[in-house]
Amino acid sequence: MAIKEKKARREGWKTTKSERLNYYIGDLGRTLEGYIVTAFMTLFLLFQGIDLVKISAAILVVKIIDSVDDVLFGFLIDKLNIKNSRLLGRLAGEGKYLPWYRATFFLFPIFTVIFFLMPQAAPEAVKLTWFTVTYLLYDFSYTLVEVPMNSMIVSLTDNVDERNTILQFKGILTGIFTILAGIVWMLLISEHVGFSMRSVAIVSSVIFFIMMLPLATKVKEHNAELKNAESGKDTEHYSFRDMLGCIKTNKFILFILLSTLIYAGLQTGSALGTYASFYLYGDSMILVIPIAIAFIPQTIAQLNTERLCRRFGKKRVFMVCGLVGAVLYSLIYFTGYHNFAVITLLLVLQAAPGNVSNIAKTFFTPDTIEYTRYKTGKDCSGIFFSLNAFIKKLTESISASLGLFILGLSEWVAVKADSFEELAAMNVTQTQGALDTLWFVYMLIPAIGTILGVVVMAFYNLNESDVKLMAQCNAGEITRDECEAKLSRKY
């Protein structure tokens, strides 16, 4: 992968190879720390024997509360200079977004561990209270890390091609290691090994904390300040009204957020894969087979995402690959879960276009931020990525709550166990109606969400060549007049 990136490097890149490597590792640690809760949360609560409808309600309430602080925190990141803080100033260091990361990232694994220490023998009311309090702390620490991390892609470099390459490799590494981590975690908690989710989550959190450390000391932001804002504009200190003005100016970000809201809000099966595998096929590991087969072709496709986008355009790659993946996803549901061979084939075929589309979509947000910086002279990266985090957490609550609520309306039998080994020994049988509902939640609702999410992005029309000109203007490489003269249209 290092060879591939070296070949892709072009003139004008600002970051060093070492900085990019530490950024990738730190982001990967942060992503996997969040992913272990995403992967285990629904299963963990299901294993606590809590009523599914109560679980769905608790998840929805907690996520809605937490989602609000994402937007407020994004405003604070763009508004405040943490380096001036007496308490956190020494930890903060230099930069715009890295100071927030350095001062707060260690809270993330701490609160993750506390979340998984829920006492299994406690009454249901105590478990719901434990979940509410610890999940709010976990989500707050997630925000403290995620918003600066995602905003950093704009402040690391002003070179658009460099950003796209960084985002591509970041997306590829995330895709590869979330798959590998998911497989390892599923194996460890499966009936074949028998570890508890609690022990796996705690050990993993220690590893991810170590991965996040180098980013705090060995990466520099090379594009932390706007260098060509209109004279008289204050780019560092501005009001909440200015923030709202930035959002109002950027209609393009609204299409991205709406697409994400629809797509992710209907991903009801994302946290139920292991459960579906266990109850539909009698083995919690069987759905690993299509994932393993698709791994290599999927990775090759992801490696070529940035190249495809340069040749055909980000939007075209996203739309075509997204629709192909969504159609294949839909066919899986109508095939029925009994025909495992056909399902495996369709899942393998869907993996490459689906993942290329997901990586291509990450290229849009930095473009919209450059557009806003160009139009307003304000650096609102924090608020935009906070909005993205708000939508992400809101949709996680909607998808998890919706899936569990629908499953709870069926004849699903609640169980209390600490691992799949224990669950297998209990030999709990679900009715056919409950299994059909699980298949509906696991496959059809996500397919509909994927199609609708792609369709919304048809209305996104920010020209990529114009973004490159705006980025050069924002970085002071060309004047505003030179930029205006070369733009394809008036913005």
Short synopsis of the structure:
This protein has 491 residues and is an all-alpha fold.
Describe the structure.
The chain has 491 residues and is mainly α. Helix 6 packs antiparallel against helix 9 (197-217), helix 11 packs parallel to helix 18 and helix 21 (464-474) runs antiparallel to helix 22 (480-486). The protein is built from 22 helices and no strands. It has helices spanning 2-8, 17-46, 52-79, 89-92, 98-104, 107-115, 124-156, 160-189, 197-217, 240-249, 251-265, 273-281, 288-303, 305-312, 314-335, 340-362, 364-376, 381-409, 420-426, 432-456, 464-474, 480-486. It has one domain (16-486): MFS general substrate transporter like domains (Growth Hormone, Chain: A, Up-down Bundle).
Q: What structural class do helix, strand and pairing data support?
A: mainly alpha
Topology-level CATH name: Growth Hormone, Chain: A
Mean pLDDT: 84
Measured between the Cα atoms of the first and last residue, the distance is 38 Å
**Counted beta strands:** 0
- β-sheet strand percentage: under 5%
- Quaternary organisation: single chain
Radius of gyration: 23 Å
CATH homology-level superfamily: MFS general substrate transporter like domains
Topology pattern, helix = H, strand = E: HHHHHHHHHHHHHHHHHHHHHH
What's the domain count? Answer: 1
Spans of at least 5 consecutive residues whose pLDDT stays below 50 are: 229-238
Largest sheet: none
General form? globular
What's the CATH class, please? Mainly Alpha
